[in-house]
Amino acid sequence: MSRPHFLLLLFPCLLILFFSLSPSGQAANPVSFCKCMCSTNVTIFPLDGPGGESGVDQENACGMCTRAFCLAKMGTSCGGPEESSGDLLVECFQRDSWKDEIIVKSYILIILGLIVAIYAGPSIQAWRARRDPTYGRMMPR
Length: 141
Description:
The chain is an alpha+beta fold. It folds into two domains: 1-29 and 98-134; 31-95, no CATH class. It has helices at 3-21, 24-28, 67-74, 98-131, and strands at residues 31-38, 41-46, 88-95.
């Protein structure tokens, strides 16, 4: 079997594998994280719902990311709860949004489509030439 025909069969299989392995529910619920910065110590904690369930009420999860949360999680690595200086910075951010996933998957599909078009182009032209003898000839003026 020649390479272009093999790639034409491989492309749909790769698409099915690609979309079956990517969880669609995960992209709908972005995961929130709390970044606690204390002098040179930077620690990132996932913001879980009540009872340690991740993905619970992620819209309001950034409300949990407070100075008290960071001091409780970091313990003595930032001076403990008696720390009164203002060198503790708190930041909340999200990962894995559905927009990011759509952009990345679209880019991958476009690149795969271009690669298949490059390899399949000569085979398609040869097939069209066999099917229509006038294909590719210049028309007289």
